Amino acid sequence: MTGNALPTVGFIGLGSMGSGMTRNLLKAGFPLVVNDIRPEQAAELVDAGARWADTPAETAARADLVITMLPTPRHVADVLNGPDGVLAGIADGGTWIDMSTSVPEVADGVRLANPGLRVLDAPVSGMSTGAASGTLQIFVGGDEPDVTRLRPVFEAMGSPERILHVGGHGAGYVVKLMINQLWFSHLVATAEVLAVGVKAGVDLGVLRSSLVASPANSAFVERDVLSVLERGDYDEGFAIALACKDLGLSIDLARSVGVPTELSALVEQVYRRARASYGDRAGEMTPMRLYEDLIERELRL
């Protein structure tokens, strides 16, 4: 980005993450064009100054760069392709940033078919609270000049020190999938340990404090698990159906590069059992309920 004028951002996907990210783009002064399969999602943004576009193609045609933030690789492909898709409206030499948790194949196909298009993958961590507060961590894959040019856009949505250029095209997707895979594994392991310890008669607070003080400590044990232990909040801002999708993508990635992932496959099955038990819209931390049900007690401090 050069000059004083901020580029117009086209943003597609106004769910629990996209709604917060777009509000912060507006707050930072970026002109905004938005689209979502549910037009009512854009009402507050339009009232705040964003412009509505009826199709992804119109979004791309009216913007200097396009961001997609969508649930699955299939949704990303659907938004890109067809007569009303992004690729039908974006200018030659334009920029597309996919901030979805996805896989490299979709973006690779776009780059090969559209060599003049500037493409970056930039998935995020930080949950819906980070999207709302503008403190997301962003993992960017792509060419260094593009990452530098677009850093002001990323800084409007994330913490500057947590915006990481992690490698070439596709690296952002891979890093995000590995982070999710490890975080979900932390959750299942922590749920097991707390359930066993409490069932064996140890006070939950004492057990957690002991874990925090030990070599087994982790950011999950020290911080993230408190949403359940203190508030009974299983994070419905990120549905377990999406968590299962992410685990499936990470295991598919491992298979594609020839690395066995027995532990992650087991974690995926625990997540799928929780999804079957509590429904698609249950929060991403709902597998902890499986263990609470087993010991017939809620894990609360």
Concise structural overview:
The protein is built from 15 helices and nine strands. Helix 1 links the parallel strand 1 and strand 2.
List keywords for this structure.
alpha/beta; 301 residues; 3-stranded mixed beta sheet; NAD; oxidoreductase; HIBADH-related
Describe it for me?
This protein is α/β, with parallel strands linked by helices and 301 residues long. The chain contains 15 helices and nine strands. The strands form two sheets. A six-stranded parallel beta sheet has the order 3-2-1-4-5-6, with helices on both faces. Strand 8, helix 8 (144-157) and strand 9 form a beta-alpha-beta unit. Helix 9 packs across helix 13 and helix 9 crosses helix 14 (262-278). The longest helix is centred in the middle third of the chain and has 29 residues, at 171-199. The N and C termini lie far apart (49 Å). 40% of the residues are buried. The mean pLDDT is 95. It comes from Umezawaea endophytica. Residues 8-165 form the 6-phosphogluconate dehydrogenase NADP-binding domain.
